[in-house]
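[Meeting: bench + compute handoff]

Bench side (C.D.) handed over the final construct sequence. Compute side (W.E.) agreed to return the predicted structure before the next meeting so the bench team could plan truncations. Sequence as handed over:
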Amino acid sequence: MSVTVKVPTPLRKFTAGAESVQGTGETVGKLVEGLDLKFPGIRERICDEQGRVRRFVNLYVNGDDIRFLQQLDTKLKEGDEISIVPAIAGGR
């Protein structure tokens, strides 16, 4: 089972500049673990020391924020598209 992972510019140093990569996993958490095996160091940029998604990182499965699904336990299926989106602070 393969899914497409959209990689934001700040994390492309781990993927040799690739904008998207293929990954596998039954859940988002397993996908992140697998990505770290292929691209060492990427997991610690996505998850904190407790294994939770970092506060300023958003993960989407087919456009749906995993915070409103089952977090890292969100199930994946063939052909899903996962987006890693760093939160951007701004304003006045």
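W.E. noted at the follow-up: The two ends are 45 Å apart (CA to CA). C.D. will use this when planning the next construct.
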